[in-house]
Amino acid sequence: MQTALRKAEHSTLYVVVVAFFVTDLLVSNVIAVKMISTFTVFGFPVTLQAADLIFPVTYILGDVLTEVYGFKRARKAIWIGFACNFFAACAIYLGQRLPANPDWHDQASYEAILGTQFRILAASFLAYLVGEFANSTVLAKMKVWTNGKYLWSRTIGSTVIGQALDSSIFCTIAFYGLMPNEVLVSLVVFQWLFKVTYETAATPLTYLVVSYLKRHEGVDVYDRGTRFNPFALAE
């Protein structure tokens, strides 16, 4: 395998993976409003959101992008996801603020399903950026350290770090002061464990996708000498 892209920088398969990455992110934010289960963890009630079933896929796809195309291409995908998510949030807010037709009586339902608080939105945006970039950076560096061996250690290890930051930042900003600290901590720990377990269970699928892309794209990027600056989009 080559350590640099041999084909066009943005191949069709790369675009497809990014499209699924962004779609998963946007859909997760829309369906997050629905609570699907409540059970006890460490003696405290924990409720799952519908988004918990698909949001971890963004980390799996982030792993695939970094493993195959390298940190620079993954960085572009992360920022594309952020930009699309920001646009969607602005569009939903605009729809909420526009005056309703007198014959339309579902404004309350619209706000209940699609509306969001600024605090929740800020928590989501920051947690996404920090978590995804941490995930991508750890995986890229581990690939160099392991000389491309033990893919499972990279996908799981990067998720352990990235999801710990994601869950901690989101829950703290979104819910600090709104629930007892011990409940907040239990929520962070449970979300982290759930997402890491999810990633671990998906490891065989990750292997299949990575193998397919490396074979068909003819690429296998190692980030030797890469500057892991999230904002260096011009590189």
UniProtKB/TrEMBL annotation:
NCBIfam families to which the protein is assigned, alphabetical: queuosine precursor transporter
Subcellular location field: Cell inner membrane
Membrane association type: Multi-pass membrane protein
Family: Belongs to the vitamin uptake transporter (VUT/ECF) (TC 2.A.88) family. Q precursor transporter subfamily.
Entry-linked PANTHER family: QUEUOSINE PRECURSOR TRANSPORTER-RELATED
Classification via Pfam families: Vut_1
UniProt keyword annotations, A-Z: Cell inner membrane, Cell membrane, Membrane, Transmembrane, Transmembrane helix, Transport
The UniProt record lists the keyword Membrane: yes
Segments crossing the lipid bilayer: 12-36, 42-65, 77-96, 116-134
Protein's name in the database: Probable queuosine precursor transporter
Taxonomy, superkingdom: Bacteria
Functional note: Involved in the import of queuosine (Q) precursors, required for Q precursor salvage.
